[in-house]
Structures are given as C-alpha cells and as structure tokens.
C-alpha cells in the first residue's frame, strides 16, 4: 500500500478506491460497469484486503465492547433468526448464544463497523469522496456452507470485498432497472430458473453488483468474511422531487384543489384536467433554481460527513511549534467546499464552517489541496510569514489540515 512520504502514521490515507477496483482504472470502471453491469475481480492475492479487517477484530468487538442488537444482527436463508436468539434480557449481545447460532448456520452481520475500525473508516471516506455519496457498510461473517439471504436484488449499488474464506455467487437478470426503495420484487421465480453467471470470490477478490441485479451467495467449506459497501447515492429522483416541491411552494396554481367531481362524476372533464396537469408540468422549470437545488444537495452531503480527526490530540499539543518551516498537508480524503462572497471566503467541512478574508483564498485552497507535506514558506502567494502561521494554526485547530512533522509519540 502506498503511503504519503513523512506523513504521521495516524493519518496515512490508507486503502484507496483505486486499490479496491485494481487492476481496473477508475475511467474503465465508470465507463463500462458503473450502474451498468456486474464486475468480478479475481486476483489470486488473499492478502489484498487483509489490512482492512481481521477475524480477531470482529471477535474482540463482539466479546469486549458490549454491543447491543443495533450493532449486531444475524441472517439465515433457511430458518428465521431474531435478536431474541442471541441477546440477553438487557438487549446486549450474548456472545455465547451468538456463536451458537453461527455454528448452527446463521451469518453474523455487523453494520457500521467503520465507526470502530480506523482502516475501514478511511476507506469509507475515500469511497464517499469518489462518489459524492454516503456509504452504508456491513460486515458479513458466514459459517461454512451457509446462505444468509434468499435470492434478491439491492436498491443501491454494492461493492463486496472478500477478506477471508470464499463464497459461491450466482447472478441472474435485472427485473427492474435501477430500482428505487420500495419497488416490489418477486423472488419466487428464481427458484426455477438457472443463474446467468456463477463464480467464486476468494480472499482478496472483489464483486461490484449494481442495484437491480438479482443475486445470492453461499459460503464454501470454510468460514467466509466479506465487507460490503452500499452506495447510498442521490438520484435524479431526489432532484425532481425537490424541483416539484419548489414549484409547489412558488406557484399557488400547484396548490389549488382538484376540481369537484374528479372522483365520482361520470361526466367529469378529464381533458380539461389533463390540460391543466400538462401546463403545471411544463411550468416546473420556471420556478426552480437548478444551481441552488444542486448546491443544497451538495451542501447536505458535505455537512453530513462526520470529521475524521485521528491524531488531532497530538496536533493540538504541538500547535505552538508551528512556524514557517513546518510542513503541512491536507487531511486524507477531506470532503469540503470553498465558496466566496462579500469579500470573504468560506470553507465548509462536516459541521465546521470557517469564514476568512478573501485575500487568503489562493493559499487557503493550496493548503487544502496539498496531498504531500510542504513547508509553509514554500507556498505561493503574498501572505506574509505571520499570516501563514496564523492561517495554518487555524486550519489545524479546525481539523482541516495537519502538521506533517508533528508525529505521534
């Protein structure tokens, strides 16, 4: 895994999206596979994802962190398993019961484990940055010869990273193209038709499954551990819903009651109602500021991202040592926006909103985009030495950049 030269170990960028899909390039992935067809990458490299998660980490989480039923679930395609089967009266996970269910054929599911495992957190943020989309993360630990879920499709794109063991996968057709949440699916016919494709994922392999592609999976003669990233991307559906809502707020014609008799009068004038409907449809764009709508969706994505500030305690302890010789760099996979208005420049990242005089904009952007350690004195711009130090300290305090020379320990 490549690392940023001389960066603190606690803030190394970690696994990247490029490493997830390698040897494919991002251009190849987005052109041929994204939202189009499944991708199978078989590497013959069982260690490829080994740095992300281990069986010991899973066992430690289950047995020492007192998780409850919100943190651990189970699934079994053959027989139903409920939280009562593996929790105690306090709703905490009973590890002995959990592992008994596991031994009897049920899959352990750990949602949101990136909140506990830094390597997973870093990869999640890298993928979120790549897609401008929230990730839903689940870990699946299956016993030998087990199937957690019946044949189904997902309403979001899924990346499957096989960490240990192996699974036999079957993919079928796409009954609903790019389905939305709630669109109905009849799985009964898939018990009678053969799959379109059958393949095995071994440790180190990847499967990208676009939403709507029907599939199922079963572990082989060993336990199986895989990570799934569910891409909870915004769609044009959300844009259109927002646009219609904006039009309804702006124009009272959208808020008029439906004509009397529309439900019960056999002589109701549907042609006139249809003409009104078409007029309203045609006018939606007149009431919508598309740029503002898109900016609002983008702003929500940025502000909803929780900051990743590992190592921040040490950064603050060393803050007084920052001078023009200090080398700084952006935090890996930082998601942020920069905007200017009224002679001010504003940086937004997570819940942090930092407003500064607009004359610092050029060096500010350079600092936020600096992926390799660089001395403050080496940045272009006419900001004097004291100004550079003040700006760098402010950005470090806000968790936006870090002093690469101030390593832990």
Automatic annotation (TrEMBL):
Pfam families in the cross-refs: JmjC_2 (PF08007)
Looking up PANTHER family in the UniProt record yields: BIFUNCTIONAL LYSINE-SPECIFIC DEMETHYLASE AND HISTIDYL-HYDROXYLASE, MINA53 MYC INDUCED NUCLEAR ANTIGEN
Q: Does the keyword Transferase apply?
A: no
GO molecular function terms noted in the UniProt entry: histone H3K36 demethylase activity; histone H3K4 demethylase activity; metal ion binding
Boundaries of every JmjC domain copy:
106-248
Instruction: State what protein this is by name.
Output: JmjC domain-containing protein
ATP-binding in keyword set? no
Source domain of life = Bacteria
Keywords, alphabetical: Iron, Metal-binding
Q: Where would one find coiled-coil regions in this protein?
A: none
Q: Which cofactor does it need?
A: Fe(2+)
């Amino acid at each position: 895994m490549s690392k940023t030269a001389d960066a603190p170990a606690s803030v190394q960028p970690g696994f990247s999206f490029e490493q997830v899909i390698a040897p494919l390039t991002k251009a190849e992935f987005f052109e041929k596979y994204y939202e189009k067809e499944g991708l199978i990458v078989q590497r013959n490299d069982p260690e490829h994802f080994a740095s992300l998660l281990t069986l010991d980490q899973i066992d430690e989480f289950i047995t020492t962190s007192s998780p409850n039923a919100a943190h651990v679930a189970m699934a079994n395609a053959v027989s139903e398993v409920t939280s009562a089967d593996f929790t105690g009266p306090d709703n905490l996970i009973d590890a002995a019961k959990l592992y008994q269910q596991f031994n009897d054929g049920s899959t352990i599911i750990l949602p949101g484990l990136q909140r506990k495992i830094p390597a997973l957190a870093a990869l999640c943020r890298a993928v979120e940055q790549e897609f401008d989309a929230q990730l839903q993360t689940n870990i699946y630990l299956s016993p030998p010869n087990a199937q957690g879920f019946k044949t189904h499709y997902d309403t979001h794109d899924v990346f499957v990273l096989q960490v240990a063991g192996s699974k036999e996968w079957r993919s079928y057709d796409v009954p609903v193209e790019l389905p939305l949440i709630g669109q109905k699916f009849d799985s009964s016919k898939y018990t009678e038709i053969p799959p379109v494709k059958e393949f095995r994922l071994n440790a180190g392999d990847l499967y990208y499954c676009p939403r709507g592609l029907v599939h199922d999976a079963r572990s082989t003669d060993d336990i199986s551990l895989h990570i799934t990233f569910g891409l909870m991307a915004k769609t044009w559906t959300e844009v259109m819903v927002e646009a219609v809502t904006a039009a309804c707020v702006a124009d009272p014609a959208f808020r008029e009651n439906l004509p009397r008799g529309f439900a019960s009068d056999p002589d109701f004038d549907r042609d006139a109602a249809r003409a009104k409907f078409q007029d309203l449809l045609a006018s939606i764009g007149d009431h919508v500021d598309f740029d503002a709508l898109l900016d609002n969706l983008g702003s929500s994505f940025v502000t909803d991202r929780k900051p990743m500030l590992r190592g921040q305690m040490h950064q603050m302890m060393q803050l007084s040592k920052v001078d023009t010789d200090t080398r700084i760099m952006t935090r890996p996979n930082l998601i942020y926006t920069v905007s200017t208005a009224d002679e001010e420049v504003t940086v937004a990242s997570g819940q942090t909103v930092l407003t500064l005089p607009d004359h610092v904009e050029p060096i500010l952007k350079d600092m936020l985009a600096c992926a390799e350690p660089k001395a403050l004195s080496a940045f272009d711009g006419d900001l004097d030495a004291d100004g550079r130090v003040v700006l760098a300290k402010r950005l470090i305090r806000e968790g936006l950049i870090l002093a690469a020379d101030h390593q832990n320990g």
